Amino acid sequence: xxxxxxxxxxxxxxxxxxxxxxxxxxxxxxxxxxxxxxxxxxxxxxxxxxxxxxxxxxxxxxxxxxxxxxxxxxxxxxxxxxxxxxxxxxxxxxxxxxxxxxxxxxxxxxxxxxxxxxxxxxxxxxxxxxxxxxxxxxxxxxxxxxxxxxxxxxxxxxxxxxxxxxxxxxxxxxxxxxxxxxxxxxxxxxxxxxxxxxxxxxxx
Length: 204
Fold this sequence. Notes:
The protein is mostly beta strands. It has helices at 132-139, 180-183; strands at residues 9-17, 27-28, 52-58, 70-75, 91-96, 116-124, 143-145, 167-172, 184-190, 197-203. It has one domain.
């Protein structure tokens, strides 16, 4: 599936609590489905501890650059690590180019966050004529595509493969990330050609 999304559209995230399951769906918390091109559970470069699994999104639910089948986000939630910085080594956005398996990737001694299903509702993103306050009131939400809405803009990042500037993909501040989400708005930026994606966060 190609990344064919109009700039006047976005996908609003809707969460729903669910029982832990190995069903292959877009979800936050719990554990990820196995991706055969992710060999090991991501470890934080700063503290050498395993990162927390945050969410996975399937390409059947969200347009992603081909040949990406799914996107899985892992972050270190230790307050001493600089997870908020892009390419800090304290987060990993895994772009799976293979279909996920029904088996869960579930290492021992790793606690999971609250599991919720994720559904995406496509809506219009129209900001012409809106003041900053009106734009914030209408479009500050967990979403994919559109554009970032918040008081502090994310840092610009270039793809390490092709040097193209990464584009805004997602922002979220409502899913379970322990105390991290009390302080930050989380952001994912992606290479237009799908080479890589990075996580960063800004003060809310």
